[in-house]
Amino acid sequence: MQSPLRLERRLTQPKWLNWGVPLLSLLGALILGAVVLIASGKNPISVYMRILERGFASTDAFSRTLISATPYAFTGLAASVAFRMGLINIGGEGQLYLGTIGAAFAGIAFADQPTPIIIAAMIICGMLFGGFWAAIVGVLKAKFSTNEIITSLMLNYIAAILLDYLIFNSKSYWRDPKSFGFPTGKRLVEGAYWYDMSFGPITVPFGFLVAIITAGIVWFFYNRTRFGYEVSVIASSPSAARYAGIRTRWKIITVMSLSGALAGLGGASDVGDFRHVLDAKGVQIAGYGYTGIVVAALARLNPISAIFVAVFLGGLSNAGYALQGPDFPSGLVGTLQGLILFTAVAGEILTRYRIKRQTHVAEGVPA
Amino acid sequence: MADYIDSKLTVTMKGIVKRFPGVVANDGVDFEARAGEVHALLGENGAGKSTLSNVLTGLYRPDEGTISLNDEVVHFDSPREALERGIGMVHQHFRLVNSFTVAENIILGEQTKSIMMDSSAAIERISTLATQYGIAVDPNARIWQLSVGEQQRVEILKALYHGAKILILDEPTAVLTPQEADALFVVLRSMVAEGRTVIFISHKLDEVMAVADRITVLRAGKTVSTIECATTTTRDLARLMVGRDVVFDRVVRTNHAEPDNVVLQISNIDANDDRGRQALTSIFLTVGKSEIVAIAGVAGNGQRELAEVISGMRNATRGTVAVNNEVIPNGRVRKSMSAGVSHVPEDRLHTGLVADHSVEDNLILKSYRRAPISKFSILRRSVIRDQATDIIEKYDVKTPGTTTPVRLLSGGNVQKILLAREFNSSPSVMVVSSPTRGLDVGAIENVRKRLVEAADSGVGILLISEDLEEIFALADRILVMYEGTIVGNIAAHNATRESIGLLMGGIAIHQETN
User: Fold this and answer.
1) Residue A363: its chain B contacts at CB < 8 A?
2) Minimal CA–CA distance to B275: which of B300, B242, B249, B240?
3) Which of A21, A55, A57, B96 is 20 to 30 A from B44, alpha carbon to alpha carbon?
4) Strands of B292-296's sheet, edge to edge?
5) pLDDT for A234-287, tens place per residue?
6) Whether the complex's predicted ipTM surpasses the cut of 0.85
7) Which element (helix H / strand E) includes A163?
8) Is A248 touching B (CB cutoff 8 A)?
9) Mean pLDDT of chain B
C-alpha cells in the first residue's frame, strides 16, 4: 500500500543545489511545455528555437528583452526582500502601479527641469508612492497582526481601480485634457525619457542599470549589515528575535516599505524607459508585480540571481510578443511561464528534502 | 468488559541498525523485554534510545536486524500496525487534542463501522480500565483542564484502551513532580503484575533503579549490557552509561555567596502569561553577588514568565526589577542587557539561539549592535570569525567550523555556545532556565562547572530548574514556585528533597524559613 518513494529531510543543503535545482526545474518545465505544445499541434523544438531567437539570440532582440526584464528585476527584488523576512508581500503589482503614478507625476511636474533632475524626481516619487502603499500593509500587520497576504492582495485591486479612476473616470492631474474618445494620460516631455545606454551593439535601458546597482545594494544590506542580520534572525526565529531585543514590529513596517519602494521603482522605470505616460491599461495587462513573485522564487530570494532570472523571463515574454499571432495564441506563452513556476516550486522541495527509495529490510520468511 | 491479558508477549530485537545521514543511531542493538517486567532503556542523549523505540513502534524501518514477537518475525510500517500487534507508546510530547474530552481523545483513531461514536460504552470501558490500574481521571474532562501529569495518564489509558500489551514510555517523569512520578510508578507496577510489559526510557539513574526490573544500557548506538536491577548500583549504571566514573556531588565553590550584596532585586512583581491570565503574583526575591539561588517548581507555574520579566521580554503588570540597585525599565530587552542581565532560556535552540544560523552568527546575537562586531551598521565578518574561533577553542565546542548551523550540533555543544555567549557579555546577573535538561552526563558536568565558575567570579545566578538533583548540587538557597507565587525560601543546607517536592506539589509545610 505504501509508496516506494519517501521524502527524507536533508540535514545540510549542498551548494550545487542553488544552481542545480533551478536548472532542473527549467528543464522539467521545457519538457512539460513540450507536451502542451505537441497537444496543440506545434513542434516544440521549433517553438523553443524561435523563443531563443526572438528572446536572446540577436542583439536587437536582447535589447528589447532587457526592456521587458527591467520591471521584472525590480518586482523580483521587491518580493525577495519581503520574503526573506517571511513577509509574503503579494502586493508588488499594486505597489508598482503606485510607482507609475508617482513617477508620471514627477515627470509632468518637473517637465521643464534638466533630464537628470527629472529622472531623480521620478525615481524618488515612484519609490515614495510604492513604499507608502506597502507601508499600509506593514502598519496593519505590525499593529493589528493582520495577514499581509490578504491586505497586500486587496490593495492590488484598489490600486488598479485608482489607476482607472485617474485616467478614465476623472479629470485628474495625470489625464491628458486633449485626449478625446479614448482617454489617455499626459505624455511626458522627451526630457523625461530615461537614458538608453549603449554597450557595443546592445542598448541597455537606464532602468536596468539601476536594477543591477539596486540588486548589489540589497545584497550588501542583507548580507553585510546589522539590518540584514536582524531581518534574518526574525525570519528564522521570531522568539530568538524577541530574546535579542530586536524590534520586530518596526522591522515589519520598514521591510514592507522597502519592498514597496522597490516595486515602485520598477513602476518608475517602466514609465521612464518604456511607456513615457501613465498607461492605466497597459501596466495592468503586463502583470509585472505577480511575475516578480516568480522571479523571487526562481532566484531563491537572492537579489543577484533575481537579475538573471528577470532577463530570462523578460526574454520569454519578449519572444512571446513576437511569437503570438493567429497560429500561436499568447496563452501558450503564459502556460510556459506558469509551468516554469510550478516546477520551480516543486524543485524547492528538493532543496530541503531528498527522495529515497523505501527499502524493505529482511522481507518475508517469518519463522 | 475487563481487559485481561490472554496472551503474553515477549519482544526481541536483534542486531538493529538504523542509519541517518552522517550518523549511525543504532549500531547493532540487541534488546529483549519479557512479559511482566518493567524494562528500563538507559542511556545518554544520543545513545539511540528514542531511535530504538521508534523502530519498535514502526515509525522507522530498521536498515538491518529483526524484531520478533514471541519468536515470530514482524514488520511494522506504521505505529498503527505496531499497536494492532499490542505495542503502544507514550511520547514525551503528548498527542492529545486539547479541546476534546478525555474519552474522545482515547477513542480517537478507533476503527468503527458506524459513523456515530458510541461514547457511553467507551466511557464505561475507560472507567473500568482506570479503576483497574488506579488511574484517577474523569473521562468527561477536557484535556486543557488537566494538569500535565493527568494528561500523561490519559495517554497511558489511551494505549491500554487500544490493546497495548507492551507499553513504551519515553522519559515519562520529565514533566512530573516527584510525588506524581511515584504515583506513576505504582500504575506501572500494577500493569506488569497483570502480565503486560513496560519499556521505560530514561537517563535518570535514580528513577530507573526505583522502577525497573531489568535495565538495558545503550551507549553510542550499541547495547552495553542488560542487567538485573537488584544486582547493580547507580554508580555502576553511571559508569556503564558514560563509559567512565562520574561524580555528581555538590560542586566545590572557591568564593562564598554574598547574599547581602544584592545584585538582583525583584519587588512585588505581577505579570500575565501569553493568554493574558495572571501568571505571577507578588513576587519578591533577591540574588546576591556570587550567590546561586534556585527556583524549584514544576514547569508551568510561572517560572518562564519570571525569567522573561527579568530579561525584559515580558511586561510586568506591577512591581520592579532592579539590577545593582538600579531599576530597569519594564519590558525592554536591550535595557536589561545593558544593565547586566544575561538570560539562558529553556528553549535553547529556538529562543536562545537561531537554529538555522551559523555558530559565528549566533555568537553575536547580543553584541552585533556594538563595536567591534559592527561599525557604522556594517558587520565586520573577520572580527566575527576570529571571535568565534576563540570561543570555540576556549569553551571546547565540538563543531566542524564557525559557519556550521547550530541545529546540526549536539545538545551539549549547543548549550556550550549559548553559555559562552552569555558569559562573554560579562553579566552581573544570569537567569538560567533548565540549563542541563536533555543533556548527557558529560555535558551536564561541563555546564555545572561553568555556572559555578561564573558564580565564583561574582555573578549572581538565578537557576530555574525542575531537576532537584541539580538544584541540590548547585544552589546556595532554594525558592519554590507554585501557581505563580513563591511558597518557600530555604537555605540549601536546611532543605530536603521531600520538603521541596511537597512544596512543588503545592503542599504547604510549616518549616522555619531560613
Assistant:
1) 75
2) B300
3) B96
4) B341-344, B429-433, B460-465, B292-296, B477-482, B485-491
5) 999 999 999 999 999 999 999 999 999 999 999 999 999 999 999 999 999 988
6) no
7) helix A148-168
8) no
9) 86
Chain A closest-CA separation from residue B365 CA (Å): 6
CB B27 within 8 A of CB B17: yes
Nearest CB to B66: which of A227, A233, A362? A362
CB B390 within 8 A of CB B364: no
Specify burial of residue B77 (Cβ count, 10 A radius: 0-12, 13-18, 19+). middle
The beta-carbon neighbor of B22 closest among A11, A226, A361 is A11
- Residue B6 or A35, more confident: A35
* Of the listed ranges A329-338, B167-176, B272-281, B330-339, the one predicted with least confidence: A329-338
Which residue carries 513615457 as its cell? A276
Locate the chain B residue with the closest alpha carbon to A358.
B61
Model confidence over B317-370: pLDDT tens digits?
Answer: 999 999 999 999 999 999 999 999 999 998 898 899 999 999 999 999 999 998
Burial class (CB in 10 A: 0-12, 13-18, 19+), B56: buried
Tell me if residue A19 falls in helix, strand or coil: helix
Interhelix angle B381-394/B411-424, rounded to 10 degrees, is 110
CA-to-CA separations, B410 to A252, B349, B397, B413, B447, in angstroms, rounded = 33, 11, 10, 5, 14
Of B63, B73, B365, which has the smallest distance from its Cβ to A366's Cβ? B73
Quick one: cell of B218? 545503550
Are β-strands B374-375 and B378-379 bridged in parallel, bridged antiparallel, or unpaired?
Answer: antiparallel
Calculate Rg over the CA atoms of chain B.
24
Q: Which of B68, B334, B377 is facing A226, going by the closest CB pair?
A: B377
Q: Give B300→chain A minimum CA distance, Å.
A: 18
Looking at chain B, how many residues does it have? 514
DSSP for B354-377? -TTSBHHHHHTTTTTTSTTTEETT
Are B334 and A365 within 8 A, CB to CB? no
Q: Residue B24, Cβ neighbours under 10 Å: how many?
A: 16
How far apart are the CA of B274 and the nearest CA of chain A, in angstroms? Answer: 13
Per DSSP, what are the bridge partners of residue B320? B267
For cell 500489551, name the residue. Answer: B165
Sheet architecture: strand order including B316-323: B278-289, B258-272, B316-323, B326-327
Instruction: HSE, CB side, 13 Å, CA atoms: give it for residue B99.
Output: 0
Strands B316-323 and B258-272: antiparallel
Angle at CA of residue B367, ends B362 and B370, nearest 5°: 145
